[in-house]
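Late entry, evening session. Most of the bench is empty. Finally got around to the prediction I had been postponing all week. Sequence below, unchanged from the version circulated by S.P.
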Amino acid sequence: MITYDRLFIAGSWTAPSSPDLLDLHSPHDQSVIGRAAQAQPADVDRAVAAVRAAFDEGPWPRTAPAERIAVIRRLNALREADAEKIAALISAENGSAKWFTLAGQPGLTRQATAYLTAAEEFGWEETLTSSDPAASSRSVVRREPVGVVAAVIPWNSPFSAAMAKIIPALLAGNTVVLKVSPENSLSMGFLAELLARCGLPEGVISVLPADRETSEYLVSHPGVDKISFTGSTRAGRRIASIAGGQLKRVSLELGGKSAALILPDADLQQAVQGLKFASLLNNGESCIAQTRVLAPRSRYEEVVAALKDLVESLKTGDPNDPDTFIGPMVRKDQQQRVRDYIELGIKEGARLVTGGPQIPPGLEQGNYVTPTVFADVDNSMRIAQEEIFGPVLVVIAYDDEDDAVRIANDSEYGLSGGVWSANPDRALDVARRMRTGTVTVNGASIAFDGPFGGFKASGIGREYGAVGLTQYVEYKTVTL
């Protein structure tokens, strides 16, 4: 049992405006695993006022980039030292399988290292040389912090989402209010403990677990200069409308319905083993999951059979069991949402290859769903167009490469995707034609030094590396 009965506001643990604590339940068996205070609008007011003062009057925005880099290096080192504890907390809160939460820890290091390297090489201040020989002036271009950042993250991968926002925001000299989901009150409470130890000046950052209403109050707050949001496309549209009305800077990393294109020459065993991770990571509760599998008609039934064998070989169960690959959904309503989509797929006329809406035997206490594969899916079906956020795969047939690319692009989303081929050049050509922000070839890992984000309804702006840093600066030109 872990209890956080105070809120981390501007670097200090502070009594919340409401004394009520939220009970946090295990997705595996519904037992209470912790209790935590939840922020209310009055707490947001205090947090914004404090980080506003820290930005306007404190030392952090005026600290040399090298000093800010040193603080973030300490934060990263503290996180690395407690990687196993962080993984255990996320598994307990989210139901994410132990293999996933542990495997994600080195990824957090790569993510932080890419930001730190970019910050070291960033042109914080540059002098422009005029190409006009008659010009007598010179210009100094500065990259300065935006101000107070409201960073709002979802529950499904809390440390990755949090670090993707607070690291570049802090490196650029901003102050931050990090709004986290109630489900992650324990892991994000521990992140607050790390932030208290890394050497940040007083007032620079607050960490507030809160519901959607309080989140909207935060992003609407007049003391906020920039909103950085990761979450659903529906919520992103609402936040974009608020930002537009107030002319706030905004970046959005939203939903996805990513396609995996298996080309006719692909090594099917390699592709299916790769899709084990690309399509079903984090119990399928991932915005980048490649859940639309596009297969050539010449190999369609072969692909369907291979995916059936794969899914049926994966153990669903206790996320702390090292043999478990798929754990429970985060909440009861998410469990029901996924089961409803499975029933919808059956009603739409898709062929149920394996799985179904039934709860796996012996796991009725938890938020479990049966991993499911549908075949004979038309791309116009809702199960092919809407983000299910669970372990549900749909297999869609295509005629040729042009048809495959057309189907892949026939989506309101454009966040991620994959191509599988024995010919890397051919795969690269197909990847270039896909209207999506990130494409992996033959299961390659996402590069944290490259920009990450979405086309179309999958978002605005980018995270990671040097491009991610640019989302948290304003440009100033001084002409002399």
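Two things to note before I forget:
Residues 73 and 113 are 8 Å apart (CA to CA).
DSSP finds 15 helices and 21 strands in the chain.
Will write this up properly tomorrow.
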